[in-house]
Known about the structure:
The chain has ten helices and ten strands. It has helices at residues 10-37, 44-50, 69-82, 84-103, 106-117, 231-267, 279-307, 313-337, 349-359, 366-378; strands at residues 123-126, 142-146, 149-160, 167-173, 181-187, 193-195, 209-220, 224-225, 269-270, 273-274. Strands 1-4-5-8 form a four-stranded mixed sheet. It has a four-stranded antiparallel sheet with strand order 2-3-7-6, with helices on one face. α8 (313-337) runs antiparallel to α9 (349-359). The radius of gyration is 21 Å and the shape is globular. The protein starts with 9 loop residues before the first helix and ends with a helix. Flavin-adenine dinucleotide binds at residues 92, 125-128, 133-134, 158-160, 201, 204, 209, 358, 361-365, 367-368, 371.
Amino acid sequence: MAVERLLPTTEARELIQLTRDIADKVLTPIVDEHERAETYPDGVFATLGEAGLLSLPYPVEWGGGGQPYEVYLQVLEEIAARWAAIAVAVSVHSLACHPLLAFGTEEQQRRWLPEMLGGNTIGAYSLSEPQAGSDAAAVACKAGPVDGGYLVNGTKAWITHGGIADFYNLFARTGEGARGISCFLVPRETTGLTFGKPEQKMGLHAVPTTTAHYDDAFLPVERRIGTEGQGLQIALSALDSGRLGIAAVATGLAQAALDEAVAYAKERTAFGKPIIDHQGLGFLLADMAAAVDSARATYLDAARRRDAGLAYSRQASVAKLIATDAAMKVTTDAVQVFGGYGYTRDFRVERYMREAKITQIFEGTNQIQRLVIARSLAQ
Ligand SMILES: Cc1cc2nc3c(=O)[nH]c(=O)nc-3n(C[C@H](O)[C@H](O)[C@H](O)COP(=O)(O)OP(=O)(O)OC[C@H]3O[C@@H](n4cnc5c(N)ncnc54)[C@H](O)[C@@H]3O)c2cc1C
C-alpha cells in the first residue's frame, strides 16, 4: 500500500506520483533480473535524469530541481522501496554534487555544475581508502604539487558506481594531518586514472563498487575545490547531507519489507487462521510499523531543519542511526514473518535484509554516528 505522505506543495505531490509511475514502469519489472545477474541497468539513470529526479535538491539556476530536502528525501525513499541499489546511487550522485555547490568558485560552478546537475552525467564520491574508512583523516592518496596543478598517486576504495560515474570527488593528501587533505573534482577520462574489478558484495548487486587507482594522474589547479587543506571539512559537510539520503534509503527498504510482510501475513494461515491474527505475529508487525514510522519521522525532522537553515549535523547522524538500525531489524523480522520461504530467493525479503546491512556501514558506520552525536553533546 502506498505511503500517504505529508507533502508541502502540489509540485511535491506530483513528483512523488511521477516517481511511483517510473518505479512501476521502469524499475520494478527489471530489478530482480539485474540484482540476480549482478548487471548494471543501462538506461535507468538516463530515465531518472530526463525526469529531473537526479538533481532535485539543487538550485534551479544551476539546472537543479529547486526542491526542499524533505521532498528530495521522500522521492529517494520511494525509489529505495523498489530498488535500493539505484536509490543509493542517486544519493551518492547528490552527495558528489555538494562540494562544488558549497565550496566551488563561481567560475568553477558556471563551468561544471550545469552538466553535473543536467541529468546526463552521474557523480561519485571517493573518500575511503583500503586502510582508511572511519578514520578519514588517515587517507594516504597523495596530490603532489607540480607546475600548473597536482600529480595524484594512490588508491581510493569502495567507490559506489566506480568506473561508471562521469565525475569523482577525490579527497587526497596535499600536506600533513587532518588539515593536509584537499578536494578535487576529477573527470573519469583523466589520464592515469583506472578502476579495479567490482567488489563481490552481499547486496546492491546491480551497481558496481570499485577501487580507483591514480598513477601520476595530472589535475590542473582549477580542478581543486575549496582551498588547499580544506578537503576534510568539505568531505564531512557533504556527508551531513549524504547521511540523510542513506536514512531515507533505509526507510524505503524497511517500508518495502513491512508491506510485503503484512500482505503475506494476511494470506498465510496457520492453526486455522491468517498468521496476522495470531497476537505474537501481529505484535511483531506492529513493532515493525512503529520502527518504519520513527525512521521516517527522524529523517524528516533533520531535513526540515536543513531546509530552514538550522544546524542539522547531529540530527542527520541520529536519523542515519535510527533509520538504518530500523531497516536491519524490520527486514530481518520480515524474513521471520515469511517463515522458511523468507530464507529463499523466491521472495524479495531476503534481498532487503542483505541490502539493509550496508546502510549501517557506509557514509559513517553507526559507531561513528554515535561518536558524532556524543561529541555534539559534549560541546
Ligand atoms: C557497498 C559499499 C559502498 C561504499 N561506497 C562508498 C563511496 O561511494 N565512497 C566512499 O568514500 N566510501 C564508500 N564506502 C566505504 C564506507 O564508507 C566504509 O566502509 C565505512 O566508512 C567504514 O570504513 P572501513 O570499512 O574502513 O571500516 P573501519 O573504519 O576499519 O571500521 C571497522 C569497524 O570498527 C569500528 N570503528 C572504527 N573506528 C571506531 C571508533 N572510533 N569507535 C568505535 N568503533 C569504531 C567501525 O564502526 C567498524 O565496525 C562504501 C562501502 C561499501 C561496503
